[in-house]
Amino acid sequence: MVVTHLVNWLSPLKERVTTVTGELGCFVADTLTADLTFYQNGTEEMAWDRVAAFRGVSEGNMTRYAIPKPEPLMTELSNFAAAVRGEEHSLVTMEDGLATVRVAEALRESAATGRTVEVAASPRTPEVAL
Question: Strand, coil or helix: what is 76?
């Protein structure tokens, strides 16, 4: 599995895209537009060898998932207000942030050494191997 994350706020073209590529295809999450699309590897062989060599796997079906697209600032403020009132909310905790940093560090170590790196589970996060 290969994951790439592109964030660009300096150019006139705003981009916030995460791509997860696996054996069956790839998911593309555009967090700027809240779009999630799956591009499936195709099963049809290319008839034209030069194009096949250039393009890699053949193109398959594309599925764009219908997901809610709430206004981000309203969502953030609503969750903050709910947290202040002691109600159920979806705020990221310090523990969640620490777990994310641990996974990022493990990814870097795995990439540098070529080995699998175990990430210890926290109470809210399952154990993962990278």
Answer: helix
Tell which phi-psi region holds residue 77, choosing left (phi > 0), alpha (psi between -120 and 50) or beta.
alpha
In a domain, 29, yes or no: yes
pLDDT, position 63: 94
Domain-embedded: residue 16: yes
For the chain, the 3-state helix, strand and coil shares in percent, each to the nearest 5, are: 30, 30, 40
DSSP helix/strand/coil, 80: helix
Domain that holds residue 30: 1-69
In a domain, 17, yes or no: yes
Structural domain count of the chain? 1
Digit-coded pLDDT (tens) for 69-121: 888 889 889 999 999 999 998 888 888 889 889 988 998 999 999 999 988 87
Determine the Cα–Cα distance for residues 49 and 56; give it in Å rounded to an integer.
Answer: 11
Average pLDDT, the chain: 83
* Residue 112 belongs to a domain: no
